[in-house]
Amino acid sequence: MSAGAEHPILDPALAPPFPVAALSVLRNPQLRKNVAHAIDVIQAKRARLVAEKADWQELRTAAAAIRDHVLENLGAYLEQFEERCTAAGGVVHWAADAAEARRIILELLREDKADEVIKIKTMTSAEIQLNPFLEAAGVLTYETDLAEIILQLGEGEPSHIVVPALHVNRSQVREIFARRMGIENLADDPKVLTAAARNYLRRKFLEVPTAISGANFLIAETGAVAVVESEGNGRMCLTLPRTMITLAGIEKVLPRFADLEVMLQVLARSATGERMNPYTSLWTGVTPGDGPQKFHVVLLDNGRSSILKGKTERQTLRCIRCAACMNTCPVYRQTGGHAYGSVYPGPIGAILTPQLMQMQHAQSLPFASSLCGACYEVCPVKINIPEVLIDLRAQVTDKQRNTFGRLFDPMYLGMRVANVVFSRAWLFHAAQWMGRIGLRFFTRRDGWIHSLPSMGRKWTQTRDMRGLPKQTFHAWWDERSKEAR
Amino acid sequence: MSIATVSRKQILNRVRAATRNSTAAEAASSYATLPRSYVGRGLMNLEECVDRMAERLREYDAEVVECAPNELAEAIRAQLAANGRRKFVVPEGLPAEWLAEGFEWKIDHDLPAQEVEQVEGVMTACFCGVAESGTIVLHHSTMEGRRVITLLPDWHLCILRASQIVETLPEYFVRCEKPPRLVTWISGPSATADIEMTRIKGVHGPRILNVILARDEGSES
Predict the structure, then answer these.
(1) How many domains in chain A?
(2) Quick one: how far is CA A298 from the chain centroid?
(3) How far is the C-alpha of A38 from the C-alpha of B163, rounded, in Å?
(4) Alpha carbon distances (Å) from B48 to B55, B129, B164, B185, B215
(5) Would you call A76 an interface residue with chain B, using a CB distance cutoff of 8 Å?
């Protein structure tokens, strides 16, 4: 969509490793400018509204504890949700993986004789790649969130989980809308563009009888589903159609209705820097005379149950998808979302994606971080992302350690040699001496090394290196004590 | 066993094998010990709550007028007259005196969506107002109406009584005797910031929100 960028691949099984995928973004100044602008705005708003909340840390503690409690007792709460939702007139389906979820949803649509469907923004549906599947099966999908329309009409991919089109600027949106909606003389004013989307969708809301949503929360106590949004497209999809299909990860459960008193307070502040998002809807099964009279929930596992096993990894599933971690991440700020090769970018994506892939793909993601810890600090459910990152790095390294290919890996060989050298003082001194002589040829007059040949280039192509001092600390110390005598 | 029940069993087994494998009763007893040291009840008196509610609503660009309890019907008439619209939808349960003369009132007895879309505005009561975030809560009772009537019209006039206002979100949850089946939390008119983070008011829901804050008997002190 942006000039010069290749079309991003957000399927973790097919996407290139993070450093490769990041290159095309790093070479695209327009894209970087769009991303930086958007997250600067959200971050400033978030910081202001979190600061005014005197009990922010207590809310985080409560939110983390509630989410942990749910995960620890997930089996009991899922069964309770199923029972209550069914009693309220909903139908609960269970999907072990993405393929099963897609098949269930298509069957429900066929039962309903639906050849088109309106959608509320749901990252879970992007995770299972639902839209291309439905389109191939002859069902037209209409995204209704403004950002999702921009991406659907522009054939782009989401780069953020709350504002998925933050990498697209107004003139790019104008171009997409003018071309795809057939509007001449469209101004690039966000107000005009938003109005164009409103008109474009109004008929669809009134005419398409089937809708698909995600869920922010499932309430075990009552079998209710909550959706948090801003635009009202969610309310339209939840209210006007005859049939509603909700796709939700199994981890989305909350024990009780009243737990929303914590979650709604932390979610909006963290996600968009608002005291409360404009609209939150909660519905329980079907209500005669109000809203869809057929309601299905598809509970999706797709790798989640395997994340529950490890205590450290389990905290990944506390996530309530606020995106505060990506907004604050110095790596995301530079690369945007597409480099992560998944619909879940940023720090949470770096830990969630490889685990959802059962550590078979996306193995570069745990390394796509400086471990600065900013993500942990802002996380409303206190996920210690650096801790999980380190744990996953260890898993990746352990796996590589046991392969034959390691014998050709310069990093592995270098570490083995270092292991020998660093554990023997005489070898270490000899290495220092040789290094001082060898590096002298590359050290400029300013004392810095700007470029090294062969393997060393990997280090110096993105940073300068201090030349080695003429004297080691040990040598200096010895000399000094001799002089003192 | 059908494929559907196989997956259900498989997922629950995997989940239970990876976790505590607790019963609902065990879950409930550990739930009771969760830390909840955040602010529950606020410190403001009713007067301050009402002021804060009005202030926060105005920050969302909602128009807010306050009135004494015996002036409510007059305040409604004035708001209707001032905004220039004529054709309104209302839920079944509103007091007759709220439906001012000189306007066209459509009472929602299961009106089809297409008809709701034809009106110019909607007037409803509400269940609660949360002052801290300027949130209006609808439980969709007969005074608040079906969800569709507060969604399609472009203008929403909401009557909020001072006694319905709480300071904090947790206080609202205390007011719910049992969990409601349907809830809509409304914090200002619909909005988006999807294009360059520029906040645009009014995407799909009502573009204009007007609130009449009615003092209750004896709340003036």
Answers:
(1) 2
(2) 21
(3) 40
(4) 10, 13, 14, 22, 13
(5) yes
Domain that holds residue A440: 407-484
State the CATH number of the domain containing residue B144: 3.40.50.10420
| Domain span including residue B126 | 46-214
- Residue B139 in domain: yes
How near does any CA of chain A get to the CA of B46, in Å?
A: 20
Å between A265 CA and nearest CA of chain B: 8
Asked, for residue A176, whether it belongs to a domain, the answer is yes
Does residue B202 fall inside a structural domain? Answer: yes
Give the model confidence (pLDDT) of A8-65 as tens digits. Answer: 889 999 999 999 999 988 999 988 999 999 999 999 999 999 999 999 999 999 999 9
CA A251, A255, A258, A262: dihedral to nearest 10 degrees? -40
A95 forms bridges with which residues in the sheet?
A300
Banded pLDDT at A334 (limits 50, 70, 90): very high
Token readout for A28 is: 């695209």
For all residues of chain B together, what is the average pLDDT? 93
User: Domain end: A305, A324, A349, which one?
Assistant: A305
Are the C-beta atoms of residues A1 and A154 closer than 8 Å to each other? yes
Task: Show which of A258, A282, A305 is a domain's final residue.
Answer: A305
Q: Are residues A289 and A419 in the same domain?
A: no
CB distance A150–B194 less than 8 Å? yes
Residue type at position A172: Q
Phi, psi of B19 (to 5 degrees): -125, -160
Q: Do B148 and A146 touch (CB under 8 A)?
A: no
In a domain, B35, yes or no: no
How many independent structural domains does chain B possess? 1
pLDDT at A87 over 50: yes
- Which strand (E) or helix (H) includes residue A408? none
The complex's ipTM works out to 0.95
What is the C-alpha separation between A246 and B14, in angstroms, rounded? 22
Token pair recorded at residue A112: 């309903």
